[in-house]
Amino acid sequence: MNKQLIIKYTLLLSFSGLTMQSWAQQRGEVQDQEFIIRKDRVLTLPTQPRNFERIPVLPTPKSNLNFNYKVEPFFLSLPPLEIKPEAAQKSFPRNLEELYPGFAKLGFGNYKSPLVELRYNNWEEGDYNFGVKVKHEGFYTGPIGGVNSAENHTSVGLNGTLFRDYFELYGKVDYARDAFNFYGYDPDNELLTDFITSENIFNTIKVKAGISNLEKMSELNYDANIGVRLFNDSFSAVENEFLINGKADFWFSEYMKTEVNGTLSLTNPADELYRDINRNYFKIQPNVVYRKGGLNLSAGANIIFENDITDNKKADFHVYPAFNASYMIQDGFGVYAGYEGDVLRKTYYDFVMENPFLGPSEQLLNTTQNFLAKAGIKGVINGEFSYEAGVAVGQYANMHFFTSDPTDTLKFNLVYDSDTRLINYNAKVNWEYQDWYKLTGAVNYYQYTLSDLQAAFHRPEWELTLGNTFKPTGKLLIHANANLMGGIVAFNPGIEGTTVLPAILDLHIKADYKITDRFSVFAVGNNLLNQRNQRFLNYPVRGIQGIGGLTVKF
């Protein structure tokens, strides 16, 4: 073994010398080399013990230092990139109705009834639009005594909207003139052969301006407006109202939001029996709404201040709870329930719009809704037929009714009941078959329990409405509606007792036929069964009444 090692080392040194000699010769240097080989020298190496133990794993060093990186901003003065959009060259079809912002309707019918209506809306400007409307409809003869029962209605309106980046400013001005005759007399009475009825003309001016956000799907939405209403009639009734309305809602998440509605109404009515009255009303409604899946919940309160003076009133300040809930148990079936108290604002204008034959009033009162509890079911069948049915139970103070004036039976008085219990059973349906037929219907039954009055004078016991819309062709549209009402009890001064008026049945049909894109004709028929319907005692409505005409777009 030692000899083999000596030979290996000798050969290694020999090759190394040759290599170094060759490298030196390449550099141009020649040297003589002498090698001495000693055969008697022995090389020995010590024995190394074998290690069977594993090398221990050293712990990973950890640093206690924190490294903070500071980012320095660098700004470059570069001009913004300019994007120049260009309109597409493709020609898109445009709806022809957009070419006609205005239309005129002209018609005439029996009872000497002209109809003129003009409307124009300008929406072509990018940041604003406006609209103008004028309408006159008259019935210069009526069901009793010809001109003695005439009436006519005229209205003029202007509205506009100014759009900004994030909100819109809107406003409108309206004027209405409504003329009625007190014709509730007996024309067969020989003493009234030459009787001439007195005419009452209502003049109403409304001005309104407001602001609203444009993006209705944003987290915060708002709408606030201020308005003035001026009203007077041909006698001594005058009522001016200053009104502020506002509402806002904020969405916390996709399912929950909070909302607040507020109303301020200041009126100073005057009539033959009162002057210098200030009726103030302020209401704020905070509410929280939660909607997810088929569940819809809302909880809040109605906080009201009003200064009406009544014997059965405890305070001017009221706080009532307001809860509403609905839940769709299945895709086509659900339930709903609610409970709410409130003070319902009532002005002289509201009363006279409900009964235009109202005489001088002694007192104007709001209706206090101590509570209204409701529950019912609703659903959809086959995606076409929807229905709803329920019952509502309420208790009210100072609910208003109408009775004939004993000293002047042509006019009506306002009367109030201090404690009224009302049960209302209701149902409604809606069916839409494809795109050519639609049915709507509603039925209500009312059960009153009164504390001061004999009956719920001139309020119906039941109501039924049916609406049908047919579109057999693209040019023909037909509406056929029926309104039924019954169980109306009136106070009859002639017998000093109550009278139940005959049931009201009014069948109404309207048809529109499109000749061209600009021209169409229409026909309207009212009270087609020629009923002597009386909504108010001694005031039958017109019999069969029809009107036809032409509509032109421009």
UniProtKB/TrEMBL annotation:
Superkingdom field: Bacteria
Signal peptide from the UniProt entry: 1-24
GO cellular component terms given for this protein: cell outer membrane
Keyword Signal among UniProt keywords: yes
Keywords: Cell outer membrane, Membrane, Signal
Gene3D superfamilies: TonB-dependent receptor, beta-barrel domain (2.40.170.20)
Cellular localization per UniProt: Cell outer membrane
Protein name as catalogued: TonB dependent receptor
Organism, as annotated: Belliella buryatensis
